[in-house]
Amino acid sequence: EEMMDGSRARAEAPSTEPSAKLFCCGCVRRYLPLVYREEIYHILRMTGPLVAFRILNYLLPFVITMFCGRLGNSVLAGYGMASATISITTAATGGGLALACDTLVSQTFGSKNLLHVGVILQRGVLILLLFCLPCWALLINTQPLLLLLGQDPEVARIAQLYVIVYLPAVPASFLHQLQVAYLQNQGVILPQVYTAIAANIANVLTNYILITWLDFGVYGSAVANAVAEIYICVFLYAYIRWKRLHSETWGGWSLESLQDWGAYMKLAIPSTMMLCFEWWIYEIGGFLAGMLSEMDLAAQHAVLMLATTNYMFNLGMQGATCVRVGNALGAGDTTAAVLTCKVSLTLTALLAVVQGAVLAGLNFHYICCKMPAGCALVISTVRCSSFWLGLLICVCIQSTFFIVVIFRLNWERVTKETIPYKERKHKDLILYQTLPPIDASLDRERLRETCNREQSKVRLSTSQLIIRRGLTTLAAVLILATGTSLHLTLPLPEVSKVTEANDTLNLNSTLQYATPSLQTSGVNQSEINYL
């Protein structure tokens, strides 16, 4: 009877596991250990909403592009050039700076130091708002930069219009990326999906009202492009306030957010450079394809759209892995961090196989299956495909390097390095209080001096904060002033009246009807002379 009860308990045990809904097959539960099943379940549970959020976020510019197509080729080209300029100068910068929160917030949240999560968020807000000023300095000079690169003057003029109207949306874009990092690294994913759905609905309505109903043309499209970023930022902020998702991690604005900017920037600067280089590669590929022919540019755009769609799934899994590893390291659980790494790498490899099979079914397999042996011959003959061939080789080398680094990583040392400074100081204080009072008086004095010296190195006094943060703000303002001066002083070519009327011609060309000829209308020349 006891054996029957035990077997019954073992049979019912999987139903109480969180992963039982995913792994309902008995043979899978028998051959796959419980820890792996649980980890796969938690990663996939976060990956699904993250992929949905990425795709919904990608739909915002897609809708704007559809409405731009109704305004003519010049407007569509100008919007595309403005989007590329914003991506490589502003979006990549803000995204890279916000990536530092992925590390800091996840580890701090994993260590259960909840109020310090709010301090990190405040620090990120201040730093990213300061970086808005240099980004504005670049954006307001979009037209001369595009003309310097040999772009069409009319396209550069329209791109400048889009960028100028987009300037108020730059802080909203930066703050939205911070909010996403703030929630995502606490394991909160669904609010981003809900607000992205609402933002897409509002974006469609705004484009319809401004472009189709009110007929504001390119100005309405530029406003809709800027308002889309403001929508998704405000909606997410309102949802956080409504559901009080910040109640446990937000203790109000604190002067502590002015400290440790150096530690934040040590993570933010490499992250920004990594993201900028990654995005710049694709923009450079589009520029090089445009130098070849329109057919190469169209092929480059089609392949880029396909690669971007596939990349959304990898981004979702990357976000889930980052949260799990960061929380485990912050909690001091080295084993869980290593397990998450192994499981995520395996899932990524399986996902790559599935995506490759799908592309093979779409007749894209020839890119890899028919790769010639001579790379020089390939580059000289396949034109646009050589860019993707070179990108494939570089990504393979980079992935191999990353995998070697991950498996050779000293995870114990990494776990110790992620202990927050306050916890280290607290442990030093405990050690200082527990030293023997008689035999270790000298050690106690040395430890006191060491703690005071380390604290003085990390924390800045009020005067130091005023000087350093003031100089940082002054530098950002000077960069903006320099960009504004260049914008006001640089001479730009005057656009002719014919060029200025291109938008109206492109818009009204579809509304014009064929003028009937004299023969088809049945009117003779004498009647015309009489009239």
Automatic annotation (TrEMBL):
Localisation per UniProt entry: Membrane
Membrane topology per record: Multi-pass membrane protein
Location, primary (coarse class): membrane
CDD domains in alphabetical order: MATE_eukaryotic
A cellular-component GO term for this protein: membrane
Pfam families: MatE
GO molecular function annotations of the record: antiporter activity; xenobiotic transmembrane transporter activity
Transmembrane segments: 51-72, 78-101, 113-139, 159-176, 188-210, 216-240, 343-367, 387-407, 466-488
Keyword terms of this UniProt record: Membrane, Transmembrane, Transmembrane helix
GO biological process, one term: xenobiotic detoxification by transmembrane export across the plasma membrane
Similarity section: Belongs to the multi antimicrobial extrusion (MATE) (TC 2.A.66.1) family.
Designated name of the protein: Multidrug and toxin extrusion protein
Gene source species: Astyanax mexicanus
